Write a sequence for this structure.
């Protein structure tokens, strides 16, 4: 049983890291878009 759990972890770990990186990238992009929108709104462009 322990072997199976370790095997599953090994297989899912790269995917998990990729998902985390993707989530971080998405959050950063969303934040950048929001910041741009707020800046434009403040300047009244």
């Amino acid at each position: 049983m322990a072997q199976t759990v370790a095997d599953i972890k090994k297989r899912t770990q790269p995917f998990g890291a990729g998902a985390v990186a993707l989530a971080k990238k998405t959050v950063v992009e969303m934040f950048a878009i929001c910041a741009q929108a707020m800046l434009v709104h403040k300047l009244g462009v």
In short: Residues 1-45 form one domain.
